[in-house]
Amino acid sequence: MIILKADGIKKYFSSPGSGFFSRSGAPVKAVDGVDISIEAGESLGLVGESGCGKSTLARVLLRLIKPTTGKVFLDGIDFFALKGRDLRKTRRRIQMIFQDPYSSLNPRMTVGNTIAEGIKVHKIVKRKDVRTRVHSLLDKVGLPPAAESRYPHEFSGGQRQRVGIARALAVEPDIIIADEPVAALDLSVQAKIINLLRDLKEDMGLTYLFVSHDLGVIKHVSDKVAVMYLGRIVELSDKESLFSDPLHPYTRGLLASIPSLERGGKKLKAAIRGEVPSPVNLPAGCSFCPRCPEATERCKLEFPPFVTINGGRKVRCWLYS
Amino acid sequence: MLLKVNNLETIFRMARGEVRAVDRISFNIKSGKTLGLVGESGCGKSVTALSIMRLVPDPPGKIAGGSIELEGNDILKLPEKEMRKIRGNEISIVFQEPLSSLNPVFSCGEQVREAIVLHQHLGRKDSKTEAIEMLRRVRIPDPETRYKNYPHQMSGGMRQRVMIAMALSCQPKLLIADEPTTALDVSVQAQIIELLQDLREELGMSILLITHDLAVIAQMADTVVVMYAGKIVEKAPAGKLFSDPSHPYTQGLLASMPGYSIPGKSLPVIPGSVPDPVKLPPGCRFSDRCGKRIEKCFNEEPPLFNLGDSHFSRCWLHNKEEN
Ligand SMILES: Nc1ncnc2c1ncn2[C@@H]1O[C@H](COP(=O)(O)OP(=O)(O)OP(=O)(O)O)[C@@H](O)[C@H]1O
Ligand SMILES: [Mg+2]
Q1: Tens digits of per-residue pLDDT, B95-144?
Q2: Residues B23 and B166 in one domain
């Protein structure tokens, strides 16, 4: 059953370079036509390089910003059409975990109050039971009950991320959008948070959209993977096929770019040339074309469609149509 | 041997107590080779780099002991004036965040030229030609045009190339690269790794590569040093370290890498967390987190045991006399 669906999402921002005098600057196409759907209980990994629009897409799905066009459906209900009580009730169902647990926590609020806030707003339990509820959440994320009276700065990065997770879980969401939740953490801490997120998913039957630039992390946590480049999904596939047989030249290049423990001494050759161009004034054809080793004349001129091949895998590349 | 670091000790005197950021570490770097220094946040990697450059902020920091020999000369004994020459000419450093290390009001080309003028006695025209040559050397496309760009007009990868060009302008014997690719995207990281590998060969320099990313180390280093809470816990040729890690900490780190274990299964984790640097446990610093500890680990600090073939590990498990 599809729990979260995004249809034709575009989000354009007015160009930062257009300055004071010119109002006519081309818009930044942060997200430029994205369709995704996530099955209940599934973990969809969204991978891509900085500036490709991952976080903007996440913010649209959370209804933190309005898309330029497109719709988001939760269990078939149009998220952006909701108002008042219905909106509040639906908002609760989809929660976010951020990259930087420090800046996303209020430094002047105790951990207990931070977690209790959502419980009270959404009246998850009776007032007298809030504290017990906070304790059980702390326990779920592996923090002692005494943590409730302490402040964020008293915690390490990994512990703060646990607080952020407890806050997200406090309102009993169905869907968690995690935007680079382990990128700021050390390896040994990262492993613990990844395990925690995985255990919580099993225990509570959560659905994840897991945003990361780290293919190792994506490989570990996702069932399906969407690869994003310059505001568009260029490949969507089950995880096994994506890693064993990547289709899009961008996906292939990304996989070849990861430094590997097994390469042992052999030189790493950069597989993708150049850098992600600014999303203003994109080429008419495929936006990866200037960096693509397999680009042809057609790629420069015509925008490739998102085609389905090999039993449900999807790819946006002229090599496959 | 280009660089010999011997029992280097760097401390910070803080209100909370004394932090032994680098605690009697020793390692050597051969000419033309890359040494990888790896470990988690706060283990003393950057302080090691700053100590070699003699740029430890004093106070609160101080190099408290040991020696750093560059081609046989202990640079810790040099007066500051002599050290300044070493810093520009023999050893240079590239940091993680190229934007904050570049001056926003000068063009990138001018900054490279500045570095060249400082170290080579060239006139205005020659230094500019040389600067453009350096930009070309770090594979910046169209260097004549790029010369005029300001830092904010360049991408992260291009800025890192400019930083590398500046660091190489003095043709150093040793390049210290402190997390040179951490802020970059994977595709750009691969380009910078390739560039550093090529430049090392072209220029015959040595690299001290500092990173928390084991895979980057595996990709680039000839020798690897693993640090934990200010101490070296393992030191080995790269191939050896990754195929046969001997210290329980190194083993734990490698096992917890997400890309290398069975997807969907729990990642093996190292329990607990890094000790507070002002309250280090007695005995082995890793003892409270170690799955293989024995009684002795809590009381006595293990030495670096020599396992043969240039492989060293600081763990009582290697103690032949008792086992
Ligand atoms: N200027 C300073 N003043 C006080 N303490 C410092 C200073 N610089 C470093 N330290 C301390 O020295 C220890 C080692 O820090 P260092 O910066 O070398 O870690 P690192 O291994 O480079 O970590 P990271 O991976 O986060 O860069 C830490 O305990 C740190 O708090
Ligand atoms: Mg550092």
Answers
A1: 877 667 788 889 999 999 988 888 777 888 889 999 999 999 888 888 99
A2: no
The Cα-based distances of A320 to A153, A240, A244, A304, B212 in angstroms read 51, 19, 18, 9, 39
Would you say A179 and A209 are in contact if contact means Cβ atoms under 8 Å apart?
Answer: no
Q: Which residue has the tokens 């790029």?
A: B146
Whole-angstrom distance between the N-terminal and C-terminal Cα of chain A?
Answer: 29
A-B contacts (CB, under 8 Å): 137
Say whether both B83 and B184 belong to one domain. Answer: yes
Could you tell me the pLDDT band of residue A263, with boundaries at 50, 70 and 90? Answer: low
Structure confidence by residue, pLDDT tens digits, B188-230:
889 889 999 999 999 999 999 999 999 999 999 999 999 999 9
CA nearest ligand 1 atom 13, residue: B21
CB of B21 sitting under 6 A from ligand 1:
yes
pLDDT at residue B316 in the model: 96
Give residues whose Cβ lies within 5 Å of ion ligand 2: B 46
Which of A2, A22, A25, A1 lies closest to A12, judged by CA?
A25
| Judgement on whether residues B64 and B140 belong to the same structural domain of the protein | no
Mean pLDDT of B59-68: 95
B81 occurs within a structural domain = yes
Claim to verify: residue B183 and residue B251 sit in the same structural domain: yes
- Residue A128 DSSP class: G
Residue A19, pLDDT above cutoff 70: no
Residue in this structure with the two tokens 């933190």, named with its chain if needed: A64
Backbone angles phi, psi at A204, to 5 degrees: -110, 5
Whose structure tokens read 């969401």? A173
Q: Select from B223, B309, B229 the least CA-distant residue to B270.
A: B229
The SS3 of residue B85 is helix
Residue A63, classified by CB atoms within 10 Å of its CB into exposed (0-12), middle (13-18) or buried (19+), is middle
DSSP string, B22-58: EEEEEEEE-TT-EEEEE--TTSSHHHHHHHHHT---T
Q: Which CATH number does the domain housing residue B11 bear?
A: 3.40.50.300
Does any domain span residue A291?
no
Q: Domain residues for A60?
A: 2-14+26-93+173-244
Q: Which residues contact B317 (CB under 8 A, 6 or more apart)?
A: B248, B292, B294, B323
What SS3 class is residue B205?
A: coil
With pLDDT > 70 as the criterion, what percentage of chain B qualifies? 98
CB spacing of B258 vs A189 below 8 angstroms: no
Kindly state whether residue B322 falls inside one of the protein's structural domains.
no
Q: Do B187 and A156 touch (CB under 8 A)?
A: no
> Are both B251 and B105 inside the same structural domain?
no
Are B194 and B216 in a shared domain?
yes
Give the three-state DSSP class for B200.
Answer: helix
Residues 6+ apart with CB under 8 A from A244: none
**A62: which DSSP letter?**
T
- Type of residue found at B46: S
Report if pTM > 0.90: no
Cβ neighbours of A158 in B, within 8 Å? 273
The number of angstroms, rounded, from the C-alpha of B107 to the middle of its chain's C-alpha atoms is 28
Per-residue tokens: A110: 């105790």
Distance CA B27, CA B5 (A): 5
Does B39 touch chain A if contact means CB atoms closer than 8 Å? no
